[in-house]
Every structure is written in C-alpha cells, then in structure tokens.
Amino acid sequence: TEAQFDVKKGICEYPQALAVRLALKFEEQPEDILTCMAQAGLPAGADQRTTVKALLRLCHPDKCKHPDAKLAVQILGPLLSKTS
Predict the structure, then answer these.
(1) Phi, psi (5° rounding) for residue 63?
(2) Do 59 and 20 contact (CB within 8 A), yes or no?
(3) Which alpha helices (DSSP H) does 1-84 contain, by range?
(4) CB count, 10 Å around CB of 71?
C-alpha cells in the first residue's frame, strides 16, 4: 500500500502514514473514515470524537513528517466540531 511505501521511504511510522493516506482518500466525505478505523488497524475510540482526536494526533504535522500531514489535519479538523 501507499502507507507501507511511505514507511519504507522513512517518511513516518505506519499508523501515521495510514491515517494521512486515509484522510486524503476520504477528502470528499471525511466522516466516512470513522466507520473503517478498526478495520484499518487505527485507533477507534469509544465515541466518534475520541476517534477523531486520535486521528488528528497521528496526522499532526508537529508529530508526523509526512508531506501531506497538514492537508490531512485540514480534512479531519472539521470533523471534530461535527462530533460530540
């Protein structure tokens, strides 16, 4: 997968790369990413808000060196206000 390729290139760790790649894939409908978190092997919290926070932590440009990390946060950020 593209996330595994990112890891082999030394860009970031696999969970970070996977979170960024999924955010980019679900750019048009980011809320759809929440239903596939457990299947993808990413943290799925007790509620949607916790899940979104976990994703944002993985993608945050201060923690993740992926070149698209900032875009991933921009895609996922609005989900935080839509969840409660």
Answers:
(1) -105, -25
(2) yes
(3) 2-8, 14-25, 37-40, 48-59, 69-82
(4) 16
